[in-house]
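Hey L., structure's done. Input below.
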Amino acid sequence: MSEDEEPQNEEPEVPTPAMLIVDDTPENLVALEAVLEDVDCEVDTAESGNEALGRLLKKEYALVLLDVQMPEMDGFEVAEIMRSNPRTANVPIIFVTAISKEDQYVKKGYEAGAVDYLFKPVDPTALHSKVNFFLQLHQQKKRLEAKLAKSRESEKALYEAYGQDPEQS
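Output:
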């Protein structure tokens, strides 16, 4: 086996996942970052819905922690816009709120596309567990995509080695 070849049983390397935390209160951003400082991911922050949407269009995120009540554009609107864009449609959203605790808001959050709805003050253990789950899920997806791409490359090389067009098979 040459040095360039990857052993079949090794997992492909995937980049470190990124998470976006969105909250209009800087103190809340700092608090969430502190709670999640030992989680193995890049953490970016945004202080508004518009800033969050801009970041989401420029970078791939494994997870978004999203405040519900923000000026100009609330978290529900951000989630609905995310779900309408193919690039961000499948990014998991966990709403984090101190105020919107009534059932109607929780229901609205899930309808807007949230995978979970947490109340402040957030239980650090629960938050760690949920964040780690979604980051691991993202990494598994990326590894599977890398394996599929490698398999397709191998299949194409095999067809080409035998002088066949893979598109006609």
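The beta strands are 18-22, 42-46, 63-67, 93-97, 116-119. Residues 124-161 form the longest helix (38 residues).

-- N.
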